[in-house]
Every structure is written in C-alpha cells, then in structure tokens.
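Mods, move this if it's the wrong board.
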Amino acid sequence: MSNLLVTGGAGFIGANFVHYWMKTYPQDNVVVLDALTYAGNQASLDPVADNPNFTFCHGDICDTPLVETLLKEHRIDTLVHFAAESHVDRSITGPDAFIETNIIGTHSLLKAAKKIWLEEGLNKESHRFHHVSTDEVYGTLEPNDPAFSEATPYAPNSPYSASKAASDHLVRAYHHTYGLKVTTSNCSNNYGPYHFPEKLIPLVITNILHDKPLPIYGDGQQIRDWLYVEDHARGIDLVIKKGELGECYNIGGINEWANIDIVKLICELVDKAFASNPELSDRFPHAGRAKDGHSAELITYVTDRSGHDRRYAIDPSKSRRELGYQPVESFSSGIEKTIQWYLQSESWWATLVHPSKN
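Not the wrong board. Structure tokens:
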C-alpha cells in the first residue's frame, strides 16, 4: 500500500491520474492538494469523492508548512506533482503567475519533501518525488527534425515553457545535491475528459455546440503530438514503479497532427454524431451548423500568437525500452471517446468560463 500526494489533482491531467490510480490500486490512499484556480475543478473528482481512501485539501503548493503537514499526517511516500499554470497565451499576457506557481511552487514542494523525508526521516528510504513536465521545454522542431528525446537540449520559447524548464532543473538539483529520490516525465499534448475548455480540442467541441467561431492561429499548420490522457497516467505509473532515480522519461503518443487537421476532424465527427442522434439537436439547440452537417464553416483564421512553436514531437523510445511503455488508445478511438464525453457531460463544462481563444 502506498500513500500518494497528488498536487494539482483537480486539474485536467491530475484528475485523470487520480481516477486511473484509484481504479488500478484501490488499496492505496490518495490525497489531492489543489488551489482550485480557474482551471482546477473539484467536480472533476466527484467520482472518487466518497471513496474512504481519498482526501481532498484545498490549498496552495507555495504553502510549505501545509505541504509538510500533509506529508507527515498522511505518511506520504509518493508525491506526484502536476500543479502548474500551463496555458501559453496566459503566460504571454501574465507571466508572473507562471513564475510563482511553476518555479516557486515546485521549490516549495521540494523543500517540504527534503525536510520531512530526508531530515526528519519519514519514508527516508522508500519515498519518490515524481515531477510532471512538458515537451515544450525542448523548444520547437523543423518539419524534418527528429522528435525530442531525453538528450535534446532545453530551449524554451514562452514564459510557460521557461518556467517549466526551471522547475525541471530544480527537481534534478534536489536529487543530485541532497539525494531526494526523484523522477521526471516530459509529455506531449494530452486530450480527453475533464479538459478545461480554453485548450484546443475541448474549445473546438464546445464552440461547435454553441455555434461559435473556431479560432485557428496563423495557417493552422502547427504540429503537435497528441496523447490520450489515460495513456499519460499509465506512463507515469510505469516511471514511478520502474524508472531509474534521477532520470527523465519522455511520454508521447507517436501521433503528430497539424492543428487545422485536428479541427476539421472534430467538425466531421461532431457532425456525424448529430446526424446519427437526433436527440443532440434538442439538447444543443444552438449548434446550428452541426445540425446541418457544416461545422467546418465555423473555422476562423486569426493572427498567430507571439513566439508560437511550429512543431512538437516526442520520441518515447527510452520509456518503451526501459519501462515497457506503449500508448494503448489509438487516436481514432481516443478522439471519439473524448467527443462523446463532452456531448454527455455538459453539466461539467457548461458552468466554466468559456474563452474566445485557444
């Protein structure tokens, strides 16, 4: 039995990880620490809220004494760190929050873990600090460049990716300087249930359902490697259980798509869903173009954002070779599941602030 502290567990990837872990390891105790900022939604944890092995704490990772208390009171042996500001557009207009949460917040967790695990000796030999990072720390790729590997030099291009790069370095430093038992994973773009509707895929789905424009930056040819969120959770599980201390592991979907092609595919699939299920027209009365089978008419090209990276792609060879990692979900099955979840879960996303841009 393990006792986990999951930071940012009410966010998109964090909540999906909690669901995965409690389903896979029902004997374990899971504590979620989340500040419930705009992208944190406690309702995402409703399916596990009544589980006696689950505890939710509303708090900030920058509150080091609080983190120390949670580590001690719940005898935490595994800390999985998701909590982060992650939206690139917001980092361009307001970088301070990204420095505070992603850098100072990560350092707060490391200080607390060092004190409780190393200095006070709780779970000194059996602890693990797993840090969840992003492929964006590697910068951008040209069309014919090989995918990012763990040996790719860091070259972050936005305040968001720069703050994540800094947090990665802090985690590494606490391992090499103090002996904290850490691992890091860098993932490609995730998609799936509980994704906040400012990000591309949920934004497109929910905008179609409201007959709103589908904003496409620049020419829409930015390429991303898409990973179903439960496959990401499965990869983190493998890193925690099998990963070598101090090492980084890339977790990718081996699934590159241009943004415009993703949007066109979603339009096609949502239109098909409306054509095959007349009830959807009653449930979403404003989805006029979807009813008519013409959602793609909502596509609107807008000015590209500053410093927009052209291509990301992850090479997960090391994770496959050393951990046995392999995505289970195909993109065709994963995107179908995601669209169906949003069609069935309006009660979750309808109450969220609906942004106008991805």
